Amino acid sequence: MRKKICGSLVTGCLVTGLILSPAAYADVQKIILPKPPVAINGDVTKAKIPLDKAVQMAKDVFNIGNDYDRFESGFNTFDGRTEWQLNWNRTKEPGGSISVRINAMTGDIVGMDRWESPPPGQQYTGLPKYSYDEGAKLAREWAQKLLPAYLTQTRPGPQPDQPFYGFGQRGPAEYYYVFQRVVNNVVYPENNIIVRINGDTGQLLSINLNWRENVTFPSTAGMISMDQARQVFKENVEQVYFRPSIYGAKDVPIKLVYWVKKGPDLFIDALTGQVIDNGYGYDMGKGGGAEAAGGRKQKQDLTPVEQSEVDKLKNLMSAEKALEQAQRIIAIPPGFKQTESTLTQDYQFPDTKLWRFHWSAQDNTKELNVEIDAASGELVSYNNWDEMRYKQPSDQEPKFTLEQARQIAEQFIKKQQTQRFKEVKLGDSRVGDIIPLKGKMVPRSYNFTFVRLVNSIPFPNNGFNVQVDPYTGEVTSYRMTWWKLNFPSPAGVIDRDKAASLLLADGGLDLSYVNIYQKGPREPRMHLVYRLKDQTSFMLDARTGQRLNYNGEPIPPKSNNDISDIAGHPAENDIRLLMKANIIKSKDGKFYPDKNITKREALELLVASRGWYMDSSTMDDNKIVNAAINLGIIDSQAARGLGDELTRLQFAKLLINTLDYDGVAKLKDLYQLKIKDANEIPDELKGYVALSLGLGLQTGNQGWFLPNEKIPRGYAAASIVRLLKVQK
């Protein structure tokens, strides 16, 4: 029997947790600690819970046996909390480790992580023993037993997408559950309880409390309404030209898109209605600014042979002329020595050649880099690095304000590119690095991004980036990114209101507390904000309204997990199980369980049950058939009649092929069919029917198999769930 490639099984939709009965925290008269001697860090006199009691508590709750023959402990104080850190290791095979954190003042077990090497020969196949929902219940019970005072201040967080690995041998099923802190009926996701459960054994793998005790939360009084927040959001949706930076792709089309200006970092202050500036820009596929997106930052240096050939091209400047041009534009400081002269090319636009020159001071504390377009002689980039600039000034205030520095940056661009300066707008101006001076924060640099406009629409991939020194007013860095491209007409695009509505359709805005670091090395500040909820995309096609990923590719719509036509159906639980495993996908919210299944529909489900991922938005008959052939579910001769309704006999063969049991099924003399209509089964298919019935994949009807009876979709779903429970 041939061996086919299989992944792991529906671990995604299924989980579990076996509840080990935590023992009461009884005082213990004498605790003998394991060898070697305990190593303690910190001041143990602060502990109200002594080490021996902490050890006994952990051993009782997590059933830590004497086979864990190595032990170490630590004592940590941080964020106003003191904790025992207890670590057990099992040195003999199979190895394992258990780490437990206990609040040394209250006795709360605030963390546990367990790892165990699987015993020799241990294999996992089929469905895990417990479902995801069962595991969620057990995870809550663990949190209730160990952290009841904290759990009452939480609510379950969003469920992550559950992975599915297909039928066959797999690793252990592990599932994560998050309980997020709630204050003033507003979620604070950064504080939580995270529980991890093994879906095969029911064992608690980890539980950890992430919680800050001394935090001040803004009141919710005086908040702006959700409608007002949506209006602010709408104002931060922008139409732009977008070109993804895809390595090696030369002819990447420009797209007209709408995107959220700050992407996932768009935080709307719920009290003021202002967008919070956290001092950071958003890089959408290297399109968040000219410097971030400039393909010229990554070069391919030419070999001497290639460089010699390029030098012969008549439309390129020689190195000498390019160097003269660089020296006319940029004053080379006295004492600087030229150490590099290289012809490079843009990795996205190989036809664009650049001369790159490098100078350095004798003590290597200063460097100068200049790039000149080898065809036009234009200054492409300039960077003046001075080590002293990154050391704290002794007692200086900046001589130039941000506004004055912006004017300096604009004058520098105008001097190099008079016409192109008319085709840009200021995209971003911000203080760069921050240094402390006399109890306050002062800037180390000012950074400006000027975005190219095409048809009055921003093209964030192109423009200018300029850095200005706040103390000298010197332009210390400059980069121009300006590609020769064809831009689509803006005619026929949806309006911004429609775009904003589409971007809000997948989850909308959510009210939450967020700890935000703003400009400078300061402590983060708690804000009450409106933010996009559970978004997978912050950009959409300006013509079709379809969501796009970071490479500008369409994102398929989410499957509808709310099926409306299966309530009370005998196969309801099986259908929901397959939905969670991403085996069943519904576009209209229905499954039609009593409708007869076609060969195509059955193949689609069986291919998915083997863990063969296919994008539902691009799935067609050829892809399904090719996948089924590759997996051995059908052969090329059986690839016809995809629209035909399946019979029980045909389905039996497909099920056994999916299990890779077809080699055994062909040994017809091994089987004796004890069904009333056995004579209706062709000899070459009797093994398939016998295995299907024997494994419980299909059931008889009062002793009859009924080989020619058509199969409803609900029946097929139940059979596939039974298939996934087969242990190899």
Spatial gap, N to C terminus = 14 Å
Q: Outline, from the CA principal axes? A: globular
Strand order of the largest sheet: 12-13-14-15-16-22-21-20-17
Radius of gyration equals 33 Å
Low-confidence stretches: 1-41, 284-298
Q: What multimeric state do the chains show?
A: single chain
Helix content: 10-25%
Q: What value does the average pLDDT take?
A: 84
State the helix count: 17
Q: What is the beta-strand fraction?
A: 25-35%
Structural class: alpha+beta
Profile the largest sheet.
9 strands, antiparallel
Total DSSP E strands: 25
Task: List key phrases describing it.
728 residues; alpha+beta; nine-stranded antiparallel beta sheet; eight-stranded antiparallel beta sheet; 17 helices
Question: What layout of secondary structure does this protein have?
Answer:
Elements: H1 51-62, E1 70-78, E2 81-90, E3 96-103, E4 109-116, H2 132-146, H3 148-151, E5 154-156, E6 174-183, E7 186-198, E8 204-210, H4 226-235, E9 237-242, E10 255-260, E11 268-269, H5 290-293, E12 299-301, H6 304-311, H7 319-329, E13 337-346, E14 353-360, E15 366-373, E16 379-386, H8 402-416, H9 418-421, E17 424-431, E18 434-437, E19 440-443, E20 446-454, E21 457-468, E22 475-481, H10 496-504, E23 509-516, E24 525-532, E25 539-541, H11 572-580, H12 599-609, H13 621-630, H14 648-658, H15 662-665, H16 686-694, H17 713-724
Antiparallel strand pairs: 1-2, 2-3, 3-4, 4-8, 5-6, 6-7, 7-8, 9-10, 10-25, 11-24, 12-13, 13-14, 14-15, 15-16, 16-22, 17-20, 18-19, 20-21, 21-22, 23-24
